[in-house]
Design goal:
This protein is of the alpha/beta class. The chain is built from 24 helices and 32 strands. 38% of the residues lie in helices and 21% in strands. The structure holds shikimate-3-phosphate.
Length: 745
């Protein structure tokens, strides 16, 4: 351990777990020359000396702090003022004092009272660490490693004093953060003081019960977990409850109100409301567990960096099912939430994008059970039953969530803000804000039409006719969904057919929708009625395997239960036009959507000029089609696909760059690309690909590796989880050889 940071003399007042652990950790790391200690209790001082935690003690506190460079007060909150009064005459002008109390406002007042309001050498601190154990013998030199320590410096705190205290905590491995005094006390009242109060109170209630022997005999995990902290020091907690009274009462009132609400729901047998509380709490707790394990993406979504090491693979084989359709999964939550009655969904995609939509509706008060193995139960609240969310809706990487929700939010009575991760924050939202403004909605975007989007509540929308300036199902859906709330009739005409799931599903929920050629019309005043939804497998996820099996000689796979909605089958049409061997088998209709099993056998593909009318029908599949084109005989030309530049990444650039890296002659054009295929005898070279955090770029290059001659390393693949959880496992079972580095995907 480096001795660069060294304090000549530290005095510690109060020899409990917190103070002793700190000086012990400093001593072990060689950061202190001399430690003097004081405690009201002589035995504790003797014990601390014997344990080599302090070098000397004295029953006269003045002697202990005299000449000390740093004085650490580790005493119950209400003892701070008398201790400060006792030490004040004995400390040097340069000494720095700090404390470790769980309430900062009362300590700040004590310091001002004893030393004056401008005293600059006291640094208020609070380590978020500890245990229910107390006393010298529980001292633990590792207690603070990777634990947060909150410092609450005030404007008059001296820089050198703050630096000394910060360095002291850093030296023992803590992560130091700053907060204001009042914010600290408000946050701690909720996160620490209230739980302790509840634990003490619950144990007291049960202990006073005349059947307490029974209770304690049979109290297993639940009681033990919930009440562990009631074994903490009563004096310490009595003081905290007194010192942070106002904040604690406020959070206690809120809790009492919510508890009464839950009580009423139980009394009245209102199981939907009970489920609402439990499902929301479970999601929050699961998220918290991930934060504790340092796995969660804490806003703004910072995903662990995951790379794929994709090695040359075998021929693909087998019959299997890829996850549920993303577009339909989003819409099942949206329409199910706004329906009257309970909607049951199966085959729901448990990817981060559709989960973002699910969470958004939970945040707006909808009770949603699951997902559990693709099953979701949505207790619809009706078109006018959503409630204002407590915070901005965080939609992660999901453009579909943000654009469709913008339309729905425009019709609500409350204000909403929608935010997303770094990639979503760069995507154009003017395309939805513009038509919504024409309908009379109050929609604001950040600069250049980027997220966050703020939607004002309470606007009376008017129906419009809108000619879509681009072929976009998201914009079409946004306007139609706003139309459910707009006066009169709302219609949209699209320049080319785009996916029509919104129209089909509205009809499935019993809502009238007129489709006349390229124009879709809805009127307000209707209602949605709950239904059952069986989500087919996503053809966009199936596409990776269609391409993989086509390019890898000897492959023969069957993809089961794939959605083959005519507005989505561009990838099949294009691969067939390139000479692909694809059979669509066992066609059937499930819940208003056509579905089939698709058999793909390898074939020597040839380059083509991709017909422009296929572009909107294959809009998400081009990254994998580019891989197919590279393996084809001759040139493939794509035009009319400028929309690819505003997807999760600029997909033209990302694919062309990646292809060039692995030895393909490819170049981007304004609205597409020209790719020279290497044909039957060629293969991809090795190299390192930047997926630009785009799930489809990552999976496309993973499939390219089947025809690789050396490993392809693909960076930043965590977002594969947005649309295709379990991709690597499924691909590996089928014949790919993809390793994962970093993260835990
Ligand atoms: C989607 C529409 C398409 C597609 C996206 C999902 C939808 O976007 O790329 O993955 O569910 O409506 P655009 O509407 O921007 O083309």
């Amino acid at each position: 351990m480096s001795n660069a940071f060294r304090i000549p003399h530290i005095a510690v007042v109060g020899l409990g777990l917190i103070g002793c652990s700190l000086v012990k950790a400093l001593r072990v790391r060689g950061c202190v020359e001399k430690i003097t200690g004081y405690d009201r209790n002589l035995d504790s001082m003797e014990l601390a000396l014997r344990e080599n935690i302090i070098d000397q003690y004295n029953e006269d506190i003045g002697d202990v702090v005299r000449g000390a460079d740093l004085i650490i007060l580790s005493v119950p909150i209400l003892a701070v003022r008398p201790v400060l009064e006792m030490i004040a005459p004995h400390i040097s002008d340069t000494a720095v004092i700090t404390d470790v109390g769980s309430v900062k406002g009362s300590v700040a007042e004590d310091v001002a009272h004893v030393f004056g309001a401008e005293f600059s050498r006291f640094v208020l601190g609070h380590p978020i660490a500890g245990s229910e154990r107390s006393g010298v013998l529980s001292a633990d030199e590792h207690l603070y490693v990777h634990h947060k320590v909150i410092l609450t410096p005030e404007p008059h705190t001296a820089h050198d004093a703050l630096a000394l205290v910060r360095d002291t905590w850093c030296a023992v491995g803590a992560d130091v953060e700053h907060m204001s005094v009042s914010h600290h006390d408000e946050v701690l009242a909720a996160t620490s003081h209230l739980p302790h109060l509840l634990a003490y109170s619950l144990v007291d209630t049960l202990a006073n019960n005349h059947e307490n022997k029974e209770i304690f005999n049979y109290a297993a995990g639940g009681f033990r977990d919930f009440t562990r902290i009631a074994a903490s020091s009563p004096i310490m907690w009595r003081d905290i409850f007194a010192a942070n009274k106002d904040h604690i009462l406020k959070t206690l009132d809120l809790f009492s109100h919510d508890l009464a609400f839950l009580r009423t729901a139980i009394e009245q047998g209102d199981s939907t409301t009970v489920m609402g509380v439990l499902t929301r709490a479970k999601v929050a707790r699961d998220h918290f567990s991930k934060i504790l394990a340092r796995r969660a993406y804490v806003e703004p979504m910072k995903t662990a960096s995951i790379s794929y090491i994709a090695n040359p693979g075998r021929a693909l084989s087998g019959s299997f099912r890829v996850p549920g359709d993303k577009s339909i999964s989003h819409r099942s939550i949206m329409l199910g939430s706004l329906a009257e009655g309970t909607t049951e969904v199966s085959g729901f995609l448990e990817g981060e994008d559709s989960l973002a939509t699910l969470q958004a509706f939970r945040d707006m008060g909808v009770v949603i059970e699951g997902p559990h193995r693709g099953r979701v139960t949505i207790h619809g609240v009706g078109l006018h039953g959503l409630q204002a969310p407590p915070n901005a809706l965080y939609l992660g990487n999901s453009g579909t969530s943000m654009r469709l929700l913008a339309g729905l939010m425009a019709g609500q009575a409350f204000d909403v803000e929608m935010t997303g991760d770094e990639s979503l924050s760069k995507r154009p939202m003017g395309r939805v804000a513009d038509p919504l403004a024409l309908m009379g909605a109050g929609v604001e975007t950040a600069e250049a039409g980027r997220p966050p989007i703020k939607v004002k509540g309470g606007s009376q929308l008017k129906g419009i006719h809108y000619d879509l300036p681009m072929a976009s199902a998201q914009v079409k859906s946004c306007v139609l969904l706003a139309g459910l709330y707009a006066e009169g009739e709302t219609s949209v005409t699209e320049p080319a057919p785009t996916r029509d799931h919104t129209e089909r599903m509205l009809k499935g929920f019993g809502y009238d929708v007129d489709v006349n050629g390229s124009t879709v019309t809805v009127r307000s005043g209707g209602k949605l009625t709950a239904t059952e939804i069986d989500v087919p497998s996503d053809i966009s996820s199936a596409a990776f395997f269609m391409v993989g099996a086509s390019i890898m000689p000897g492959s023969d796979i069957t993809l089961e239960h794939v959605g083959i909605n005519p507005t989505r089958v561009g990838v099949i049409n294009i691969l067939k036009a390139m000479g692909g061997n694809i059979e669509v088998l066992n066609e059937r209709e499930v819940g208003g959507e056509p579905v089939a099993d698709i058999r793909i056998r390898s074939a020597q593909l040839k380059g083509i000029h991709i017909p422009e009318d296929q572009v909107p029908l294959a809009i998400d599949e081009f990254p994998s089609i580019f891989i197919a084109a590279a393996c084809a005989e001759g040139e493939t030309v794509l035009t009319g696909a400028e929309e690819l530049r505003v997807k999760e990444s600029d997909r033209i650039q990302a694919m062309v760059d990646g292809l060039v890296t692995i030895g393909v002659d490819a170049k981007g054009t304004e609205d597409g690309a020209i790719i020279q295929g290497f044909g039957a005898n060629g293969s991809f070279g090795g190299g390192e690909i930047d997926s630009q955090h785009d799930h489809r770029i990552a999976m496309s290059f993973a499939m390219a590796s089947l025809r690789g001659s050396a490993p392809i390393i693909i960076r930043d693949c965590a977002n594969v989880a947005t649309s295709f959880p379990g991709f690597v496992e499924l691909a590996s079972n089928a014949g790919a050889a993809i390793g994962i580095e970093g993260g835990d995907a």
